[in-house]
Design goal:
The complex is a heterodimer. Chain A is built from ten helices and no strands. By secondary structure, chain A is mainly α. Chain A has a domain of 152 residues. Chain A is globular and about 60 Å long. Chain B has three helices and no strands. Classes of the chains: A mainly alpha, B mainly alpha.
Chain lengths: 278, 59
């Protein structure tokens, strides 16, 4: 909770740790506020380029026809669902090892976005499966492990909401995340380890992609858009969590921007808080 | 690819547009929820940092 030693003197961090000082929620709060517009604009630009390339420029697939175009959001959402889980697990490990409050806050901020992308992976997969496989769903290793990932996200969020003791919720959630990491390689390699209805990977690091270059371009543009979107919304959400858990830190930054005394409830503090609103 | 083809999509329009539509609806909902939460939080901070002004307003 409130740890005065960390954010009561946000500008006193030593010069040797230029980036590490942003582990302080009080310093990270305004930095996140400045990054959100750039990340959001980047996401919109990449999404526009990806949609145009994927829906207008890319040719019709010789086997699947037009329905293959679901791929551009399905694959991007699937990659993000796994990537965000790994990032959350990384923050969970950092939080447990170094006891950094911001790590736990970031872990919590990423969860709803990860859950949304996991749901979208299953949703778009079902909409792609019906016209190509003839069914919305099969208990295939890839689909089932992705469903387990959705349950892990939902379980983590339920655990966070179950108690008002944020420290216990953070630690419990972190342990759940680290235990669930084993599911990510299972999702990724399921199509190699088992005989599945789901197709294998079209892109990997060792061989040339089995898709046309324009299709790969559209897919990577959508991946970049989803990545930037995730970063923007996670930063917006973590600002809310900082303001909720450590309101003193936010008011202090507002007071310093407004030219008032640190922590003083003056008009300068009010002006600063308004400046930081995204 | 023409706009007519884009929306008919060889009869697969409902699947493709359902996938894209729900994706962008969910993303828009998430952004809107965060924006509303940030506004509420900003208003709360204003109230905390200027209690005298707000007290005057309620009278």
């Amino acid at each position: 909770m409130h740890n005065p030693s960390t954010f009561d003197s946000p500008h006193a961090a030593p010069a040797r740790s230029t980036w590490l000082r942003f582990a302080s929620p009080a310093l990270f709060y305004p930095l996140a506020g400045r990054m959100i517009p750039f990340l959001g604009a980047g996401a919109a630009l990449f999404a526009a380029a990806g949609l145009y390339t994927g829906l207008v420029v890319a040719p019709v697939d010789s086997q699947q026809g037009e329905v293959y175009r679901i791929l551009f959001i399905h694959v991007a959402a699937a990659w993000m669902s796994m990537f965000l889980y790994l990032v959350m697990a990384g923050y969970a490990a950092l939080g447990l090892i170094f006891n950094t409050r911001l790590s736990f806050m970031m872990m919590r901020a990423l969860a709803p976005t990860g859950a949304i992308f996991t749901f979208l992976t299953l949703w778009t997969g079902a909409l792609w499966g019906k016209p190509t496989w003839g069914t919305w769903w099969v208990w295939d290793a890839r689909l089932t492990s992705e469903l387990i990932l959705l349950f892990l996200y939902l379980g983590f969020m339920a655990l966070q909401a179950a108690t008002d003791d944020t420290q216990r919720a953070d630690r419990g959630g972190a342990i759940l995340l680290l235990a669930g990491v084993v599911n990510v390689p299972i999702i990724y390699f399921s199509v190699q380890w088992w005989s599945t209805l789901h197709q294998g990977a079209s892109i990997n690091l060792t061989t040339a992609p089995s898709m046309a270059r324009i299709m790969v371009t559209a897919m990577l543009l959508m991946v970049a858009a989803f990545w930037l979107y995730s970063a923007a919304v996670a930063l917006a959400r973590v600002r809310g969590i900082i303001a909720e858990r450590e309101p003193g830190a936010v008011q202090k930054i507002g007071g310093q921007i407004g030219g008032g005394q640190p922590g003083a409830p003056a008009g300068g503090s009010r002006r600063g808080a308004r400046t930081e609103a995204p | 690819m023409s706009w007519d083809v884009l929306f008919s999509l060889q009869g697969h329009g409902p699947y493709i547009l359902g996938a894209y539509g729900v994706t962008f609806l969910l993303m828009a909902w998430e952004v809107l929820a965060l924006w509303r939460r940030a506004r509420r939080s900003g208003r709360r901070q204003e109230n905390v940092s200027s209690p005298a002004r707000d007290a005057g307003r309620t009278r």
